[in-house]
Amino acid sequence: MTTHKVVLIPGDGIGPEVSGAVKKVFAAAGAPVEWVLRYAGEAALQSGADDVLPETTVAAVREHGVALKGPCSTPIGSGFRSVNVALRKKLNLYAAVRPVRSLPGVKTRFENVDLVVVRENTEGLYSGIENLITEGVVASLKVATRTACHRIAHWTFRYATHRERKKISVLHKANIMKMSDGMFIDESRKVHEVDYPNIEYNEVIIDAASMKIVQDPSQFDIILCENLYGDIVSDLCAGLVGGLGVTPGANIGDEDAVFEAVHGSAPDIAGQDLANPLALLMSSTMMLNHLADTRKDEACRNVATKIKRAYNKALEEGHKTRDLGGELLTSQFTQAVIERL
Question: 0.90 cut: is pTM over it?
């Protein structure tokens, strides 16, 4: 069996606990993965690095091509820059992918939710270009390039084809931002018309789309957004199925991919064995499927399927952490998954 080296970035707060849970499940499942430990965020500073995103961490991801990352803390309004944004930019991880599906045993307002949010991950307002014009006046610059708009549109249609998805909805505000969002939908239309006319396609203004999502999420299959909209909409969609604790995430480029839990580092419960490890565990199965696709190793897909069945069965039988209405600790839920492998 081929063993794949994967960079593990535990993260901050509850990150070491949930990443530790994934390591235990992978070991029990016989996943063909060898972990390469690196640090980012506050954990990097505590390990002696002089930056929240050490070059050694970035270099390791470039060397091995894939990483699993726990949540990293980012101060609000001041302090150091976002590790997540910096990592995506340095590795050119332009496609953020967040599948959202209903889980057995997790009761919410909706049933049978099954959609994917794809977010352009490198520009828009998240370019971080802000200037103080004069006292009390700040300008933030939204960046859009035709290259990036075309790239994410083409990636999304290709992904839809590979996953046998039938419809792509582009969310935008081109009625107001006619040039930037206008370019985004223009490139999406071109890709649809020229390369993928077989896939159903529509465009929805972002505010109206938000209403439609919470009215009836079954109207949507794949949602494609620019950076800021995708960040907000993916969290909104997570609320349809139980929250950020049960939604995985991936950041994918042409060369590298980083899979991550999309929730925060939750420092208020860190070290108390209370965190739900499911989001990072689900992200790790996405990672195994990615390895199967890119490295032609079906052993990875088999293990991913085994892990997915195990956590679904655990949830279905009522084994849940407190955020989902259960009583299990992190370690207890992890053990419940392992027993069902």
Answer: yes
| Cα-trace Rg, the chain | 20
Q: Which two tokens stand for residue 66?
A: 């894939």
Structural domain containing residue 311: 1-97+245-341
Q: Pick the catalytic residue: 231, 256, 297, 323?
A: 231
Q: What is the mean pLDDT of the chain?
A: 94
Residue of 12, 39, 89, 126 marked catalytic? 126
Burial per residue of 224-259, b for 16 or more beta-carbon CB atoms within 10 angstroms, e otherwise: bbbbbbbbebbbbbbbbbbbbbbbbbbbbbeebbbb
Domain with residue 148: its CATH number is 3.40.718.10
Q: Which of 178, 207, 254, 293 is catalytic?
A: 207
Q: What is the pLDDT of residues 263-285, one digit of tens each?
A: 989 999 999 999 999 999 999 99
Whether 104 is in a domain gets the answer no
User: Does 231 qualify as catalytic in the annotation?
Assistant: yes
The verdict on 183 and 114 lying in the same domain is yes
Which two three-digit tokens encode residue 263? 């929730």
Q: Does 90 map to a domain?
A: yes
Query: Is position 173 annotated as part of the catalytic site?
Result: yes
Task: Choose the catalytic residue: 39, 89, 159, 173.
Answer: 173
